[in-house]
Amino acid sequence: MNIYGLLIGIAIYIGISQFQKKDNYIPKPKQDKFIYTLIALAIIGARLYHVADFWLYYKFNPLEIINLPAGGLGIFGAIILSLIYISIFCYQNKLKIIKVLNLIIPSLALGQSIGRLGNYFNTEVFGIPTYIDFGQYIPIDARPLAYLNYSYFHPVWLYESIWMFITYLFIKKDKHPTSNYLISYGLIRFLVEFLRFDTWQQGNIKIGQLIALIMIATGFTLKYLQFKRKKCLN
């Protein structure tokens, strides 16, 4: 296993541990199946998002689709497929989806922070060239053709990793972590997309920024609903 895979594994292990410590809502006999199905679908969703993003490459190299150690996991794909599964699971078991999400979200934020470190070892998720002192040196064979004459690039993976760790510290004991996570990750992802040249784009629209805006809007909608509920209870 390479370091990228090792860090993803560590992120998953810590995430499961954090979730199990907090979960007193999902019925215990169903907890393990829920957790491991969720992880499997998150990885599949993340890979499918990445493959869709780089379909022009993968349609000519189909065997590379299953080459996970080489990198290539899109967090938005993981979130979307996981949310579909969680919705179905909650419906089948008569559970409130927001309560389940509130249990999972802090683990997700911490896992993202750890997992992003793996991008460094795979020399991926870096941004446009930079002259700032903390720019990341990229070997010439890993540089995009448009930037062959540049040596240092924005370490986008590091920006996200630090931001998500701070987010985790902020929401880990919060009563409503889901809304704050959606706003926080939506904001950082929307901003770093301006620095990235390797993400999914249709025409002039970056798919990542579109999803990030939906996340932010959903987060504020949840906050508004929480405020209305609190006001009614008072």
Task: Explain what this protein looks like in three dimensions.
With 234 residues, the protein is mostly helical. The chain has one domain (3-233). Helix content is 65%, strand content 3%. The chain is built from eight helices and four strands. The chain has helices spanning 3-22, 28-53, 55-58, 75-93, 97-121, 156-171, 177-192, 207-233, and strands at 136-137, 152-153, 201-202, 205-206. Strands 1-2 form a two-stranded antiparallel sheet. Strands 3-4 form a two-stranded antiparallel ribbon. Helix 5 (97-121) runs antiparallel to helix 6 (156-171), helix 6 runs antiparallel to helix 7 and helix 7 runs antiparallel to helix 8 (207-233).
In short:
This protein has about 230 residues and is mainly alpha-helical. It has one domain. About 65% of the residues lie in helices and about 5% in strands.
Summarize the SSE layout with pairings.
Layout: H1 3-22, H2 28-53, H3 55-58, H4 75-93, H5 97-121, E1 136-137, E2 152-153, H6 156-171, H7 177-192, E3 201-202, E4 205-206, H8 207-233
Antiparallel strand pairs: 1-2, 3-4
Question: SSE order, as H and E?
Answer: HHHHHEEHHEEH
Q: How many distinct domains? A: 1
Principal-axis shape: globular
DSSP summary, beta strand count: 4
Distance, first to last CA: 54 Å
Low-confidence stretches: none
Structural class based on helices, strands and sheet pairing:
mainly alpha
